[in-house]
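Practice problem. Given the sequence and the SMILES for adenosine monophosphate, write out the predicted structure.
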Amino acid sequence: MKILVCITHVPDTTSKITFSENNTKLNKDGLQFVIGPYDDYALARAVEIKDALGGTVTALNVGLAETEATIRKALAIGADDAIRINAEPTDAYFVASQIAAIAQKENYDLILMGRESSDYNGGQVHGMVGEMLGIPSLSPVMKLDIEGNTAKMAREIEGGKEYLEASLPLVLGCQEPIAEWKIPNMRGIMSARKKPLQVVEPSSDETLTIGQNYEMPAPKGACKMIDADNAASLVELLRSEAKVL
Amino acid sequence: MSVLVFIESADGEFRGTSLEAVAYGAALAKAQGSNATALVLGNTVDASKLPNVGNYGVSKVLHVNDDRLDNGIIQAYAQVVAQAMEKEGANTLVLAKSSLGDAVSARVAAKMKAALASNVTELPDLNAGFTVKRSVYTGKAFQITELKSENKILALKKNAITPEVTDATAEVEAFSPSLSDADFGVSITKTDKITGEILLPEADLVVSGGRGLKAAENWGIIEDLAKALNAATGCSKPVSDMDWRPHHEHVGQTGVKVSPQLYVAVGISGAIQHLAGVSSSKCIVVINKDPEAPFFKAADYGIVGDAFEILPKITEAVKALK
Ligand SMILES: Cc1cc2nc3c(=O)[nH]c(=O)nc-3n(C[C@H](O)[C@H](O)[C@H](O)COP(=O)(O)OP(=O)(O)OC[C@H]3O[C@@H](n4cnc5c(N)ncnc54)[C@H](O)[C@@H]3O)c2cc1C
Ligand SMILES: Nc1ncnc2c1ncn2[C@@H]1O[C@H](COP(=O)(O)O)[C@@H](O)[C@H]1O
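Answer key:
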């Protein structure tokens, strides 16, 4: 089984987000960067499948040199080797084109991604890659088992789940509870240093969108406290003051 | 160049967020001096309801009468949407952000080389090119994004527009796209879906419970209030991790992002990952026994106290209102 896992390098979910240069750039000072939370699920499942069925797991990131610590973490968790495509991940179409160009050469059986990145939350890259490769794409996948050449999956839909089957190769956007997040152990961290991390230049430079600038949401007003003994009065406030009932 | 709107259904009805997308598509077309058409796939909604899509501002509905499309087969859907865009001469696709919508629109974007903006929160600014405002960093900020290519796709966050509903109806036109077996390479073997309940991503009112409720069997007080309000129920991640509630009810960064008028959080501490899912709620009520719970900082109304005493009183007051 030859598996590609695409990982993002994103601010830790507890980060406070601020911008610099006239609100055009994310202010990276003091931010802790991590593997995207959904990508972590994809990676964990990929390593489990490899452990059970044999094969290789390659981690891939489209990003500048700053992402290498994050890629090393994926190697420490259990990826065998890694590819960094040396470019700023400017838009989903650009990122998908880079991933598809690598996948066209390598013939992976499975390409696992996160359901969405936690910076742009687009949930787009997996579908684009599937279309570019002419193979099925599914997301969000919450259960994945491989039997021979068939993948048996559960996908979350609004209000429930659907169970699906398809032949490999496939591109999947993953989410919990597909696997438990894996924490790298000491041996993993040591061996990650020696695992190959190949840096390749982008195969195209086309983007279809441009991020111009950021805005922060309007600050929240103060919270109006209601006495517990008078809890029922909340309902009248919601009706006449907040006007939401 | 016109606008095509992709409509999803649930429980035999068009989804509310899809009807918002219709209103948005109609408003966009009007601003561009073009027209908008809606697209309905399969037969899960009774054909007699198709003209009613016109209530939201479009004059034409394309309908694909093919039972194979009753389930959301992503590749087949993307084929149909792309062919409908070509047939209508549409260069812009509008749809509601959803698990199916994301999967379909990404494939259409790659097929049509369309610039795709997701989580769009307002009508676009057409003054200098084509820019939209969209929510990024899980609701912590907005980005102004320019869509450069001729073809464009806008995936809307709930409440990107407040629809004006009229009694105008739309003309229904049958559309038969060409589909091959390869488009149905994925087979759905079983579907488990709640029916007759309000879907969380669509809900205008949500009552949500956290670990403070202590056990699955205590959910009655949440359900009673939700029922009295006609609200959907939600929960925090640990609650679904422990299987007190189904996974699709969990709200937050790794779960559903809701945009209701009212979000009532009961026994939820307000971790930043939970707040990521609720930050676009219009009004937030927090009920927590700990006055220091971080959720109060994000709330509009707060009550400090024991949920088991407070919630039944609120439920009674809601019932009295009706
Ligand atoms: C990468 C990542 C992603 C995550 N994604 C999500 C996500 O999407 N959604 C999510 O919810 N969490 C998410 N989490 C987990 C999150 O950090 C919190 O652990 C979680 O939200 C806490 O759930 P809780 O508020 O129900 O429980 P707790 O933090 O245990 O809070 C329980 C609250 O109940 C109150 N309480 C107790 N008894 C009563 C009573 N009788 N009456 C009233 N109040 C009472 C307590 O004062 C307390 O504030 C994520 C974490 C990580 C690391
Ligand atoms: N820069 C990137 N490098 C590698 N993989 C990425 C990158 N951006 C997105 N992905 C993958 O695509 C998934 C969906 O991202 P998005 O479409 O941005 O929400 C992510 O969870 C990753 O698995």
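Check your answer against the key. Chain A touches chain B through 82 residues (CB under 8 Å).
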